[in-house]
Amino acid sequence: MVRDGCSQWLEADGPEKDVVVSSRVRLARNLAGYPFVHKARADEREQIIEVVRGVLNGIGGDIGTGSRESGGGVEWVDLCELPKLERGLLVERHLISKQHSKGSQPRGVAVSSSDESLSIMVNEEDHLRIQVLQPGIALDNALEEIGRVDDHIEAQLDIAYSPRFGYLTACPTNVGTGLRVSAMLHLPGLRLSGEIEKVRKAAKAMNIAVRGFYGEGSDVAGDFYQLSNQVTLGKSEQDILGSFAGQFLPDIVEYERSARRSMLDSRRLVVEDQVFRALGTLTHARQLKADEVLDLLSYLRFGVCTGVIDMPLDVVGKLVLLTQPSHLQRLCGARLDQAERRVERACLVRKTLSEAGV
Amino acid sequence: MKRKCDFCDSEAVVHEITLAGGKKIEKHLCEMHAMEEGFEAEGGGASGFLTSKIVLAAGQKQPAGKPGKREGCSDCGTTFDEFRKTGLLGCSNCYEAFEEQLGPLLQRAHDGATHHVGKIPSRAGSSVDRQQRLTALRRQLSDAVEAEQYERAATLRDEIITTEQDAGLRRGTAASEGEV
Ligand SMILES: [Zn+2]
Ligand SMILES: [Zn+2]
């Protein structure tokens, strides 16, 4: 079901793309009158899916007029029927969580067909997990769009809510607005200059969580960091967005840029050496591991953003996605074991970079 | 700096500000003296004072009997111990069933927050809308008192009274004329 080629959020140009890879907003919602997902029986989960699917019409593209012809609308994917490889593609494209890709219980996801910027997971930890994903930093737009989707859904369904606690969620860390705003940042400058710990400390002081490339529970890979708000109760949506995107993020972006600048000023040779070593490995290696390629592409991205290497940034974004296991296997049209994947991965990287003229 | 009780050296946890005839009357009381003065703690027990730093003339509703730690949620059977282990509540009613235990937990997880501020589902109706507004106003009032912005506190209190009257929540003559 996923489009050929790449994800809009990794490929497309977005504001502050040199530091902010992508930004995302997510709402947790539950239907009134049903137990939360982990307490719901299979037949209740089926009912929840049915109820939600009943209101999906008109979502995506222009709400209300969204039709297939205009490129709007969402596509429903039953995850119980979807083969493992396809589920892997959805995880790698950040359209579903790892947790949601596993298990046998009734569950699914609706994805906006035009650009995959909208996804609605049904029966994950909460009945509904709505997310809008954008390239670069575009959280204001994302919040507006997700608000429209949420309005459309709650105009037709009774949503679990209490005046004191707000939107009720299975885990109380999401209660209140149910809103999580996050951004995927690329911070090689701060990591190389040894200042990443300061970012972690500043984030902690502001109740902002720092995670790895795949979100919850994942390690940092390739200097990609996912930052998100932790407080969802007692602050309005606008306040949550404001203190994150209006205050914290711009500071970090500037901090990273100045770290990059001062490294280039004082240690240009070292930076160039590292970037070109990475490029050398990428253009010549015959086997590449998954985490290795992310580290090398991180250096490449760093080189492109600082003007050390002249090539389009979207090629790097594309490689970050296409070198991941499920995408690689789809591209090759075959199931590959780990050793085979390393060979195919190196092959894909060499070919892509040579086509880009590097 | 914490404000001391009007009657002793303990920290004041209840603050009442009234404006009568252009004159501001402040009361700052510790837990013990607040009880002696006849203030009722929200939710019963001394800890109620800590979450509600401002006492309004309107009566606080007493929550109905809540299940203890052993008893489960009447809707889904989830016990508080179970929640402790999994980190997940079983249904919407769990929030009511474990309201007392969840309060401090949520405060820790959400930087001291006790009440929702923000969007309200459209189908929740206007009464919820008003409750929401009251909650927000009470919070702002509490913040204003903490910051010792008493003029602002007085304005907010005015708004709370009007909103309560609109909602028909305010019975009798809890607030005498001239009091703001
Ligand atoms: Zn006292
Ligand atoms: Zn329950």
Show the helix and strand layout:
The complex is a heterodimer of chains A (358) and B (180).
Chain A: H1 8-11, E1 20-29, H2 42-53, E2 74-78, H3 84-92, H4 98-101, E3 108-112, E4 118-122, E5 128-135, H5 139-154, E6 161-162, E7 166-167, E8 179-186, H6 188-192, H7 196-205, E9 208-211, E10 224-229, H8 237-284, H9 290-305, H10 313-322, H11 325-332, H12 338-355
Chain B: E1 14-20, E2 23-29, H1 31-36, H2 47-51, H3 80-86, H4 92-97, H5 99-109, H6 125-146, H7 150-167
Residues 5, 7-8, 10, 29-30, 32-33 of chain B line the site of one zinc ion.
| SS content category of chain B | mainly alpha
Report the biggest beta sheet of chain A as strand number plus sense, adding barrel if it closes. 8 strands, antiparallel
| CATH fold group of the largest domain in chain A | Creatine Kinase, Chain A, domain 2
Total helical elements of chain B: 7
Secondary structure category of chain A:
alpha+beta
Biggest beta sheet summary of chain B = 2 strands, antiparallel
Reading side by side through the largest sheet of chain A, how are the strands ordered? 2-3-4-5-1-8-10-9
Spell the H/E element sequence of chain A.
HEHEHHEEEHEEEHHEEHHHHH
Largest sheet of chain B, order of strands side by side? 1-2
Number of helices of chain A: 12
Largest interface summary: A-B, 44 and 37 residues
Helix fraction of chain A, binned, reads: 40-55%
Strand content of chain B: 5-15%
Quantity of strands of chain A, as a count: 10
The topology string of helices and strands of chain B comes to: EEHHHHHHH
- CATH class category name of the largest domain in chain A: Alpha Beta
